[in-house]
Amino acid sequence: MKLTFSAEDERFREEIAGWLKENLCGEFEHLKFRGGPGDEHMFPEERKRWEQKLAEGNWVGIGLPQEYGGRGASIEQQVIFAEEYARAGAPGRIGHIGEGLTAPTLIAFGSQEQKEKYLPGILKGTEFWCQGYSEPSAGSDLANVRTRAVQDPTTGQWRITGQKIWTSLAHESDWCFVIARTDPDSVAHRGLGFFLVKMDQPQITVCPIEQLTGTSEFNEVFFDGAVADDIVGQPGEGWSIAMGLLGFERGVSTLGQQMQFQNELNEIIRIAKENGSAQDSVIRQRIAEAHTGLRLMRYNAMRMLSQDERSGPDSSALVYKLHWSTWHRHLGALAMDVLGPEAEMIDSAPYNLTRLQSLFLFTRSDTIYGGTSQIQRNIIAERGLGMPKEAKGR
Protein backbone atom coordinates (compact mmCIF):
# COMPACT_ATOMS: atom_id res chain seq x y z
CA MET A 1 0.00 0.00 0.00
CA LYS A 2 1.46 3.38 -1.06
CA LEU A 3 0.84 6.27 1.35
CA THR A 4 3.16 8.76 -0.34
CA PHE A 5 3.39 10.20 -3.86
CA SER A 6 6.29 10.66 -6.27
CA ALA A 7 7.65 14.02 -7.44
CA GLU A 8 5.81 13.49 -10.73
CA ASP A 9 2.58 12.87 -8.85
CA GLU A 10 3.05 16.04 -6.83
CA ARG A 11 3.54 18.03 -10.05
CA PHE A 12 0.26 16.54 -11.23
CA ARG A 13 -1.31 17.71 -7.96
CA GLU A 14 -0.07 21.25 -8.60
CA GLU A 15 -1.48 21.12 -12.14
CA ILE A 16 -5.02 20.13 -11.14
CA ALA A 17 -5.05 22.38 -8.06
CA GLY A 18 -3.93 25.33 -10.21
CA TRP A 19 -6.48 24.58 -12.90
CA LEU A 20 -9.30 24.42 -10.37
CA LYS A 21 -8.22 27.70 -8.80
CA GLU A 22 -8.22 29.42 -12.20
CA ASN A 23 -11.50 27.96 -13.45
CA LEU A 24 -13.75 27.35 -10.42
CA CYS A 25 -14.63 31.03 -10.29
CA GLY A 26 -16.76 33.58 -12.12
CA GLU A 27 -19.85 31.86 -13.49
CA PHE A 28 -18.93 28.69 -11.54
CA GLU A 29 -18.13 30.32 -8.17
CA HIS A 30 -21.60 29.64 -6.76
CA LEU A 31 -21.25 25.92 -7.48
CA LYS A 32 -18.63 25.39 -4.78
CA PHE A 33 -19.66 22.67 -2.32
CA ARG A 34 -22.96 22.18 -4.16
CA GLY A 35 -24.41 19.17 -5.96
CA GLY A 36 -23.27 16.51 -3.51
CA PRO A 37 -25.40 13.87 -1.73
CA GLY A 38 -28.71 15.42 -0.69
CA ASP A 39 -28.02 18.40 -2.96
CA GLU A 40 -27.83 16.73 -6.37
CA HIS A 41 -30.92 18.55 -7.61
CA MET A 42 -29.21 21.94 -7.47
CA PHE A 43 -27.92 23.86 -10.51
CA PRO A 44 -28.13 21.02 -13.07
CA GLU A 45 -27.61 23.21 -16.15
CA GLU A 46 -24.66 25.07 -14.61
CA ARG A 47 -23.10 21.77 -13.54
CA LYS A 48 -23.50 20.41 -17.06
CA ARG A 49 -21.59 23.45 -18.34
CA TRP A 50 -18.99 22.74 -15.67
CA GLU A 51 -18.61 19.21 -17.07
CA GLN A 52 -17.86 20.71 -20.48
CA LYS A 53 -15.33 23.04 -18.85
CA LEU A 54 -13.64 20.03 -17.27
CA ALA A 55 -13.62 18.30 -20.66
CA GLU A 56 -11.93 21.31 -22.26
CA GLY A 57 -9.13 20.92 -19.73
CA ASN A 58 -8.95 17.16 -20.44
CA TRP A 59 -10.06 16.37 -16.89
CA VAL A 60 -12.92 14.00 -17.81
CA GLY A 61 -11.99 10.33 -17.89
CA ILE A 62 -8.42 10.89 -16.74
CA GLY A 63 -8.06 7.23 -15.78
CA LEU A 64 -9.27 5.92 -19.13
CA PRO A 65 -6.67 4.72 -21.66
CA GLN A 66 -5.30 7.38 -24.00
CA GLU A 67 -6.43 5.39 -27.03
CA TYR A 68 -10.05 6.06 -25.97
CA GLY A 69 -9.57 9.75 -25.25
CA GLY A 70 -8.53 9.57 -21.60
CA ARG A 71 -5.27 10.65 -19.99
CA GLY A 72 -4.18 7.18 -18.95
CA ALA A 73 -3.44 8.56 -15.48
CA SER A 74 -2.01 6.23 -12.84
CA ILE A 75 -3.97 5.14 -9.79
CA GLU A 76 -1.96 7.61 -7.71
CA GLN A 77 -2.82 10.49 -10.05
CA GLN A 78 -6.50 9.53 -10.08
CA VAL A 79 -6.45 9.60 -6.27
CA ILE A 80 -4.83 13.04 -6.36
CA PHE A 81 -7.44 14.35 -8.78
CA ALA A 82 -10.29 13.10 -6.61
CA GLU A 83 -8.74 14.61 -3.48
CA GLU A 84 -7.93 18.00 -4.99
CA TYR A 85 -11.32 18.21 -6.68
CA ALA A 86 -13.09 17.74 -3.36
CA ARG A 87 -10.60 19.92 -1.47
CA ALA A 88 -11.36 22.82 -3.82
CA GLY A 89 -15.08 22.43 -3.14
CA ALA A 90 -15.77 21.67 -6.81
CA PRO A 91 -19.40 20.68 -7.47
CA GLY A 92 -20.87 17.19 -7.51
CA ARG A 93 -20.18 15.55 -10.85
CA ILE A 94 -23.36 15.29 -12.88
CA GLY A 95 -21.41 13.17 -15.36
CA HIS A 96 -19.98 10.69 -12.88
CA ILE A 97 -22.24 7.79 -13.91
CA GLY A 98 -21.12 8.10 -17.51
CA GLU A 99 -17.46 8.68 -16.73
CA GLY A 100 -17.06 6.33 -13.78
CA LEU A 101 -19.39 3.48 -14.72
CA THR A 102 -20.54 3.52 -18.36
CA ALA A 103 -17.19 4.35 -19.94
CA PRO A 104 -15.03 1.72 -18.22
CA THR A 105 -17.77 -0.88 -18.72
CA LEU A 106 -17.88 -0.17 -22.46
CA ILE A 107 -14.10 -0.36 -22.67
CA ALA A 108 -14.12 -3.71 -20.84
CA PHE A 109 -17.15 -5.34 -22.47
CA GLY A 110 -18.40 -3.23 -25.39
CA SER A 111 -17.76 -3.59 -29.11
CA GLN A 112 -15.52 -1.20 -31.00
CA GLU A 113 -18.59 0.38 -32.60
CA GLN A 114 -20.16 0.96 -29.18
CA LYS A 115 -16.98 2.58 -27.87
CA GLU A 116 -16.85 4.91 -30.87
CA LYS A 117 -20.54 5.75 -30.51
CA TYR A 118 -20.81 6.46 -26.77
CA LEU A 119 -17.39 7.42 -25.39
CA PRO A 120 -17.00 10.80 -27.18
CA GLY A 121 -20.19 12.28 -25.68
CA ILE A 122 -19.10 11.19 -22.20
CA LEU A 123 -15.59 12.59 -22.57
CA LYS A 124 -16.84 15.90 -24.02
CA GLY A 125 -19.29 16.36 -21.14
CA THR A 126 -22.24 16.63 -23.51
CA GLU A 127 -24.10 13.35 -22.84
CA PHE A 128 -25.16 12.20 -19.38
CA TRP A 129 -26.11 8.78 -18.06
CA CYS A 130 -28.24 7.21 -15.35
CA GLN A 131 -28.34 3.67 -13.96
CA GLY A 132 -31.28 1.32 -14.51
CA TYR A 133 -30.65 -1.40 -11.92
CA SER A 134 -32.97 -1.22 -8.90
CA GLU A 135 -36.66 -2.16 -9.13
CA PRO A 136 -39.46 -2.17 -6.53
CA SER A 137 -38.80 -5.88 -5.93
CA ALA A 138 -35.09 -5.84 -6.81
CA GLY A 139 -33.13 -3.38 -4.71
CA SER A 140 -30.27 -5.06 -2.88
CA ASP A 141 -31.41 -8.30 -4.55
CA LEU A 142 -30.52 -7.30 -8.11
CA ALA A 143 -30.98 -10.85 -9.37
CA ASN A 144 -34.74 -10.46 -8.85
CA VAL A 145 -35.03 -8.12 -11.87
CA ARG A 146 -38.40 -8.36 -13.67
CA THR A 147 -37.99 -5.74 -16.41
CA ARG A 148 -38.24 -7.58 -19.73
CA ALA A 149 -36.40 -7.20 -23.02
CA VAL A 150 -38.00 -8.71 -26.13
CA GLN A 151 -36.27 -8.80 -29.51
CA ASP A 152 -38.25 -8.11 -32.66
CA PRO A 153 -37.55 -11.07 -34.97
CA THR A 154 -37.87 -8.84 -38.05
CA THR A 155 -35.81 -5.77 -37.14
CA GLY A 156 -33.62 -7.28 -34.42
CA GLN A 157 -34.50 -4.35 -32.16
CA TRP A 158 -34.80 -4.93 -28.42
CA ARG A 159 -37.76 -3.36 -26.64
CA ILE A 160 -37.72 -2.81 -22.88
CA THR A 161 -40.81 -3.04 -20.66
CA GLY A 162 -40.79 -2.63 -16.89
CA GLN A 163 -40.01 -0.27 -14.04
CA LYS A 164 -36.83 1.00 -12.41
CA ILE A 165 -36.66 2.96 -9.17
CA TRP A 166 -34.25 5.20 -7.23
CA THR A 167 -32.72 6.29 -10.52
CA SER A 168 -30.49 9.26 -9.73
CA LEU A 169 -30.90 12.26 -12.08
CA ALA A 170 -32.90 10.28 -14.64
CA HIS A 171 -34.70 13.54 -15.50
CA GLU A 172 -31.35 15.12 -16.44
CA SER A 173 -29.92 12.15 -18.34
CA ASP A 174 -29.61 11.45 -22.05
CA TRP A 175 -28.96 7.70 -21.72
CA CYS A 176 -29.59 4.87 -19.28
CA PHE A 177 -27.91 1.48 -18.98
CA VAL A 178 -30.60 -1.04 -18.11
CA ILE A 179 -30.53 -4.58 -16.76
CA ALA A 180 -33.47 -6.52 -18.22
CA ARG A 181 -34.48 -10.16 -18.54
CA THR A 182 -34.01 -11.51 -22.05
CA ASP A 183 -35.22 -15.04 -21.22
CA PRO A 184 -38.73 -14.97 -19.70
CA ASP A 185 -38.23 -18.45 -18.23
CA SER A 186 -34.97 -17.61 -16.49
CA VAL A 187 -34.54 -17.00 -12.78
CA ALA A 188 -32.04 -15.21 -10.56
CA HIS A 189 -28.91 -13.97 -12.33
CA ARG A 190 -29.39 -16.06 -15.48
CA GLY A 191 -31.04 -14.79 -18.64
CA LEU A 192 -30.25 -11.09 -18.22
CA GLY A 193 -29.08 -8.51 -20.74
CA PHE A 194 -27.22 -5.20 -20.38
CA PHE A 195 -28.88 -2.56 -22.58
CA LEU A 196 -28.13 1.04 -23.57
CA VAL A 197 -31.34 3.05 -23.86
CA LYS A 198 -31.89 6.64 -25.00
CA MET A 199 -34.05 8.48 -22.48
CA ASP A 200 -35.70 10.92 -24.90
CA GLN A 201 -38.43 8.69 -26.32
CA PRO A 202 -42.20 8.60 -25.72
CA GLN A 203 -42.09 5.04 -24.36
CA ILE A 204 -40.22 6.25 -21.24
CA THR A 205 -41.85 8.09 -18.34
CA VAL A 206 -39.80 9.62 -15.52
CA CYS A 207 -41.57 10.34 -12.21
CA PRO A 208 -39.72 12.16 -9.38
CA ILE A 209 -39.61 10.73 -5.86
CA GLU A 210 -39.81 13.41 -3.18
CA GLN A 211 -37.59 12.69 -0.18
CA LEU A 212 -37.36 13.80 3.44
CA THR A 213 -35.19 16.68 2.25
CA GLY A 214 -37.99 17.92 -0.03
CA THR A 215 -35.81 17.27 -3.09
CA SER A 216 -36.30 14.87 -5.97
CA GLU A 217 -32.99 13.77 -7.45
CA PHE A 218 -34.24 10.16 -7.40
CA ASN A 219 -36.88 8.95 -9.84
CA GLU A 220 -39.08 6.09 -10.89
CA VAL A 221 -38.61 5.26 -14.58
CA PHE A 222 -41.27 3.36 -16.54
CA PHE A 223 -40.39 1.62 -19.81
CA ASP A 224 -43.34 0.82 -22.07
CA GLY A 225 -41.75 -0.91 -25.03
CA ALA A 226 -38.81 1.53 -25.14
CA VAL A 227 -36.27 0.87 -27.88
CA ALA A 228 -32.75 -0.09 -26.80
CA ASP A 229 -30.05 1.27 -29.07
CA ASP A 230 -27.59 -1.47 -28.11
CA ILE A 231 -27.00 -4.55 -26.01
CA VAL A 232 -23.53 -4.87 -24.50
CA GLY A 233 -22.28 -8.41 -24.85
CA GLN A 234 -24.72 -11.19 -25.57
CA PRO A 235 -28.17 -12.00 -24.14
CA GLY A 236 -27.59 -13.86 -20.89
CA GLU A 237 -24.33 -12.05 -20.12
CA GLY A 238 -26.00 -9.12 -18.35
CA TRP A 239 -25.23 -10.32 -14.83
CA SER A 240 -21.47 -10.64 -15.36
CA ILE A 241 -21.36 -7.21 -17.03
CA ALA A 242 -23.45 -5.67 -14.24
CA MET A 243 -21.08 -7.10 -11.62
CA GLY A 244 -18.10 -5.81 -13.58
CA LEU A 245 -19.66 -2.36 -13.57
CA LEU A 246 -20.19 -2.45 -9.80
CA GLY A 247 -16.48 -3.21 -9.45
CA PHE A 248 -15.71 0.13 -11.09
CA GLU A 249 -18.08 1.82 -8.62
CA ARG A 250 -15.76 0.88 -5.74
CA GLY A 251 -12.79 2.56 -7.45
CA VAL A 252 -10.79 5.74 -7.03
CA SER A 253 -13.90 7.88 -6.58
CA THR A 254 -14.01 6.56 -3.00
CA LEU A 255 -11.11 8.89 -2.14
CA GLY A 256 -13.01 11.87 -3.56
CA GLN A 257 -16.02 10.84 -1.50
CA GLN A 258 -13.84 10.87 1.60
CA MET A 259 -12.65 14.41 0.85
CA GLN A 260 -16.30 15.47 0.68
CA PHE A 261 -16.75 13.84 4.09
CA GLN A 262 -13.72 15.81 5.32
CA ASN A 263 -15.30 19.04 4.08
CA GLU A 264 -18.46 18.19 6.05
CA LEU A 265 -16.46 17.35 9.17
CA ASN A 266 -14.51 20.61 8.82
CA GLU A 267 -17.79 22.54 8.72
CA ILE A 268 -19.01 20.76 11.85
CA ILE A 269 -15.75 21.57 13.66
CA ARG A 270 -15.97 25.22 12.59
CA ILE A 271 -19.49 25.55 13.99
CA ALA A 272 -18.54 23.70 17.19
CA LYS A 273 -15.78 26.24 17.81
CA GLU A 274 -18.06 29.19 17.02
CA ASN A 275 -21.05 28.21 19.16
CA GLY A 276 -19.05 26.77 22.05
CA SER A 277 -20.19 23.16 21.71
CA ALA A 278 -16.53 22.20 21.24
CA GLN A 279 -16.18 22.73 25.00
CA ASP A 280 -18.55 19.82 25.64
CA SER A 281 -16.41 16.78 26.46
CA VAL A 282 -18.81 14.32 24.80
CA ILE A 283 -18.99 16.39 21.61
CA ARG A 284 -15.18 16.62 21.55
CA GLN A 285 -14.88 12.84 21.85
CA ARG A 286 -17.39 12.31 19.05
CA ILE A 287 -15.52 14.73 16.79
CA ALA A 288 -12.27 12.87 17.56
CA GLU A 289 -13.96 9.55 16.78
CA ALA A 290 -15.26 10.96 13.49
CA HIS A 291 -11.74 12.11 12.56
CA THR A 292 -10.26 8.73 13.49
CA GLY A 293 -12.91 6.83 11.54
CA LEU A 294 -12.30 8.94 8.46
CA ARG A 295 -8.55 8.30 8.59
CA LEU A 296 -9.14 4.56 8.94
CA MET A 297 -11.52 4.76 5.99
CA ARG A 298 -8.78 6.39 3.89
CA TYR A 299 -6.15 3.78 4.73
CA ASN A 300 -8.54 0.92 4.04
CA ALA A 301 -9.45 2.49 0.67
CA MET A 302 -5.78 2.93 -0.23
CA ARG A 303 -5.13 -0.70 0.64
CA MET A 304 -8.18 -1.77 -1.37
CA LEU A 305 -7.05 0.22 -4.41
CA SER A 306 -3.49 -1.13 -4.18
CA GLN A 307 -4.82 -4.68 -4.13
CA ASP A 308 -7.15 -3.95 -7.07
CA GLU A 309 -4.16 -2.81 -9.11
CA ARG A 310 -2.16 -5.96 -8.42
CA SER A 311 -4.56 -8.85 -8.30
CA GLY A 312 -8.15 -7.65 -8.04
CA PRO A 313 -10.11 -6.85 -4.89
CA ASP A 314 -10.03 -9.16 -1.88
CA SER A 315 -12.34 -9.45 1.10
CA SER A 316 -11.17 -6.11 2.54
CA ALA A 317 -13.19 -4.36 -0.16
CA LEU A 318 -16.39 -5.92 1.17
CA VAL A 319 -16.36 -3.86 4.35
CA TYR A 320 -16.08 -0.47 2.65
CA LYS A 321 -19.78 0.25 1.97
CA LEU A 322 -20.81 -0.82 5.47
CA HIS A 323 -18.05 1.27 7.05
CA TRP A 324 -18.58 4.55 5.22
CA SER A 325 -22.38 4.49 5.31
CA THR A 326 -22.48 3.84 9.07
CA TRP A 327 -19.79 6.47 9.71
CA HIS A 328 -21.60 9.04 7.56
CA ARG A 329 -24.92 8.44 9.33
CA HIS A 330 -23.23 9.07 12.68
CA LEU A 331 -21.68 12.24 11.23
CA GLY A 332 -25.15 13.52 10.33
CA ALA A 333 -26.31 12.96 13.91
CA LEU A 334 -23.17 14.69 15.22
CA ALA A 335 -23.92 17.70 13.00
CA MET A 336 -27.37 18.10 14.56
CA ASP A 337 -26.02 17.83 18.09
CA VAL A 338 -23.34 20.43 17.37
CA LEU A 339 -25.96 22.80 15.95
CA GLY A 340 -28.14 22.34 19.01
CA PRO A 341 -31.59 24.01 18.85
CA GLU A 342 -30.68 25.61 15.51
CA ALA A 343 -30.81 22.14 13.97
CA GLU A 344 -34.62 22.31 14.14
CA MET A 345 -35.03 25.82 12.79
CA ILE A 346 -34.91 27.43 9.36
CA ASP A 347 -34.28 31.18 9.20
CA SER A 348 -36.74 32.47 6.62
CA ALA A 349 -38.62 31.77 3.41
CA PRO A 350 -38.25 29.91 1.10
CA TYR A 351 -37.31 27.65 4.04
CA ASN A 352 -34.58 25.70 2.31
CA LEU A 353 -32.65 23.26 4.48
CA THR A 354 -29.15 24.28 5.50
CA ARG A 355 -26.20 22.21 4.34
CA LEU A 356 -25.96 20.28 7.62
CA GLN A 357 -29.71 19.78 7.98
CA SER A 358 -29.76 18.26 4.50
CA LEU A 359 -26.73 16.15 5.43
CA PHE A 360 -28.53 14.69 8.46
CA LEU A 361 -31.70 13.80 6.55
CA PHE A 362 -29.89 12.37 3.54
CA THR A 363 -27.57 10.18 5.61
CA ARG A 364 -30.66 8.30 6.81
CA SER A 365 -30.56 6.65 3.36
CA ASP A 366 -26.82 5.88 3.29
CA THR A 367 -27.28 2.52 5.00
CA ILE A 368 -30.02 1.54 2.53
CA TYR A 369 -29.06 2.48 -1.04
CA GLY A 370 -26.26 0.68 -2.85
CA GLY A 371 -26.82 -2.37 -0.64
CA THR A 372 -28.46 -2.26 2.78
CA SER A 373 -26.28 -2.75 5.85
CA GLN A 374 -28.05 -6.06 6.53
CA ILE A 375 -27.22 -7.32 3.03
CA GLN A 376 -23.63 -6.04 3.33
CA ARG A 377 -23.15 -7.99 6.57
CA ASN A 378 -24.38 -11.14 4.85
CA ILE A 379 -21.92 -10.55 2.00
CA ILE A 380 -19.05 -10.06 4.45
CA ALA A 381 -19.99 -13.22 6.34
CA GLU A 382 -20.53 -15.45 3.32
CA ARG A 383 -17.98 -14.17 0.79
CA GLY A 384 -15.36 -12.68 3.05
CA LEU A 385 -15.39 -15.08 6.01
CA GLY A 386 -16.64 -18.23 4.27
CA MET A 387 -19.54 -18.74 6.66
CA PRO A 388 -22.63 -20.78 5.68
CA LYS A 389 -25.25 -18.98 3.64
CA GLU A 390 -28.21 -17.54 5.48
CA ALA A 391 -31.10 -19.98 5.69
CA LYS A 392 -33.94 -19.14 3.28
CA GLY A 393 -37.28 -18.08 4.64
CA ARG A 394 -35.94 -16.22 7.67
Give a quick summary of the entry.
By secondary structure, this protein is α+β, with helices and mostly antiparallel strands.
Describe the model.
There is one protein chain. Strands 1, 2, 3, 4, 5, 6 and 7 form a seven-stranded mixed beta sheet that branches. It is built from eleven helices and seven strands. Helix 9 crosses helix 10. The protein is globular and about 75 Å long. The chain is α+β, with helices and mostly antiparallel strands and 394 residues long. It has three domains: 88 residues, Acyl-CoA dehydrogenase/oxidase, N-terminal domain (Butyryl-Coa Dehydrogenase, subunit A, domain 1); 107 residues, Butyryl-CoA Dehydrogenase, subunit A, domain 2 (Beta Barrel), CATH 2.40.110.10; 135 residues, Butyryl-CoA Dehydrogenase, subunit A, domain 3 (Up-down Bundle), CATH 1.20.140.
Key features?
single chain, 394 residues, alpha+beta, Butyryl-CoA Dehydrogenase, subunit A, domain 2, Butyryl-CoA Dehydrogenase, subunit A, domain 3, seven-stranded mixed sheet, 11 helices
Gyration radius over CA: 21 Å
| CATH topology description of the largest domain | Butyryl-CoA Dehydrogenase, subunit A, domain 3
According to CATH, the homologous superfamily of the largest domain is Butyryl-CoA Dehydrogenase, subunit A, domain 3
Number of strands: 7
- Second CATH tier, the architecture of the largest domain: Up-down Bundle
What structural class do the secondary elements suggest? alpha+beta
Residue-averaged pLDDT: 88
What is the total domain count? 3
Kindly report how far apart the N and C termini lie.
Answer: 40 Å
The low-confidence parts are: 309-313
Write down the overall geometry. globular
Beta-strand fraction estimate: 5-15%
Protein name: Acyl-CoA dehydrogenase family protein
Keywords: FAD, Flavoprotein, Oxidoreductase
Family: Belongs to the acyl-CoA dehydrogenase family.
Domain Acyl-CoA oxidase/dehydrogenase middle: 130-224
